[in-house]
């Protein structure tokens, strides 16, 4: 009988602590998602875009280069993502890679279509059921595929044509990548 009490007590403690850890994990996940969402309710870009940056876009699709076993699109030895075609109104996952001195701060990707002056977000919230554009993702993290830092993201652009992706880390302009949306 004493043995049964110890087993029962042990099982109750396991259930109690197991449930608490699950709740904490779910709360952490929900807080992470809401942090991304709360940063993106703004209609205007979260950084000041220098007009010279836009004026200096040459509109040639950015080159591809190899890093690790992947083909990247972007600026060699600075910034790029694993090359995937952009299809109009089709969100996809893109793994960002960064080389060299990387400023501290969250990643922001602002998009501008050739022939337009409107700046729109390119990033989308992967946890939203419907497409929800966001200006900001977390900070780039650890090295991968020969890069010094990396960050997974989801992006979507809604019109065909050439687009410049203006990459900011924190409030600092980092570089641009020009893509063709089919």
TrEMBL record:
Keywords, in A-Z order: Signal
InterPro entries recorded for this chain?
DUF4871
Q: Where is the signal peptide?
A: 1-22
Domain of life according to the entry: Bacteria
Q: Does the keyword Signal apply?
A: yes
Coiled-coil features, chain-numbered ranges = none
Keyword Signal belongs to the record: yes
Kindly provide the name given to this protein in its UniProt entry: DUF4871 domain-containing protein
Organism of derivation: Guptibacillus hwajinpoensis
